[in-house]
Amino acid sequence: VASDSARILAVTKYGAPLDLIEVSLPDPEPGAIIVEMDIASICGSDVHQWSGRFAEVFDLQMPICTGHEGVGRVYVPTDGAELDSVGTPLAVGDRVIWEHEACGHCYECQVLHDDVLCRKRRTGMLTSATSFPYAAGTFGSHGYVWPKAGRIRVPDDVKSEWASAASCALRTVIPAVEKAGSIGPDDTVAIQGVGPLGLFATAVLSLRSPKRLITIGSPAGRQQLAREWGATDTITLEDYPDAAARKDAVLEATDGRGADFVFEFAGAPAALGEALDMAARDGTCVTVGTAAGPASPVFAHQIILKQLTVRGSFSGRIGHYAKALDFMSRYRERFDWDRLFTTRYPPDRITEALEAMQHGAEVKPLVLTQEIS
Ligand SMILES: [Zn+2]
Ligand SMILES: [Zn+2]
């Protein structure tokens, strides 16, 4: 690749193999960084974008940049990009993770101070490869850190594949747990979903030492990992195929009260209804996983009669990226982060990886972006 061009994997037709296309490297804006991609990982959102489900919600122009999880090495820094978002100096070759870019001028950015809610966010995987900055995703030889986007240097003891998963899954779990409020040794916790979100949540919540930490989901192999990471009880969909049986299992594990905290990381439309069902009186439900999909009914009276607190949590701010990397670094002896990763796909097999994700055959596959040249 010439130093002024990048090769990126792009969606040119929904559900069809991604195309490897050559694009110009942008002339970076002050504060922006062009990175050389070290590694990327695939998320459920990438499958939604590739399969065309995002097209129902967003105005997308083909060819579309792909990938939003990844680690890049500083390749072309600019004035204003000397430090990361927490003040660590950044040099050429340093590894970084970064966020989408909030506008910094809207009500949500300036009054609510929550850039996740910004209505004018610039997001790489919603950007056409024909528009600036051309290489806006993470599935390519290069990527682009938007000028106002937060960025965090990856600590030396955090592997790039771990940091890649931290850049989406773990940074989503951390604010969701914060929003639930204080959780301690007298509480019972249920986690719906044993994908990357559910497994990271198990690790994070196990350190609060709740009385019971119940994980719900499939396949059974992931429940084994959930137990090693601190789950006291595991409920598989194979053993408990219907919602009533799952609720009974949660009641049994919680002295008939239900769980004080239920975290929905399942990504199934019916999961929130089940969460309300298995929550204890005065309990809290945080829903995160089901950010797309068809409508599904819930029994709203449960919120009233049990006086539940129901909260949504979406993505995370740059401070959550910093906390995610710090968590991985501090607890790398306690949790074997390598166990999350299933297959390492060379770039020409990425479509196979997306299909495997779609069928639930992968937890967190990696894309070897260094092989794109
Ligand atoms: Zn993601
Ligand atoms: Zn904004």
Give a written overview of the molecule.
There is one protein chain. This protein has helices at residues 44-51, 107-110, 160-180, 196-206, 220-228, 243-253, 271-278, 301-305, 318-330, 350-358, and strands at 5-11, 19-24, 33-41, 64-65, 69-76, 95-98, 142-145, 151-153, 188-192, 212-216, 233-235, 259-264, 279-287, 309-312, 341-345, 364-367. Helix 3 packs across helix 4 (196-206). The protein is built from 10 helices and 16 strands. It is globular. It starts with a strand and ends in a 6-residue tail after the last strand. The chain has 373 residues and is α/β, with parallel strands linked by helices. Bound molecules: zinc ion (ZN) (2 copies). Residues 102-103, 105-106, 108-109, 118, 120 line the site of one zinc ion.
Give the secondary structure arrangement, pairings included.
Layout: E1 5-11, E2 19-24, E3 33-41, H1 44-51, E4 64-65, E5 69-76, E6 95-98, H2 107-110, E7 142-145, E8 151-153, H3 160-180, E9 188-192, H4 196-206, E10 212-216, H5 220-228, E11 233-235, H6 243-253, E12 259-264, H7 271-278, E13 279-287, H8 301-305, E14 309-312, H9 318-330, E15 341-345, H10 350-358, E16 364-367
Parallel strand pairs: 9-10, 9-12, 10-11, 12-13, 13-14, 15-16
Antiparallel strand pairs: 1-2, 1-4, 3-5, 3-7, 3-16, 5-6, 6-8
The structure holds zinc ion (2 copies).
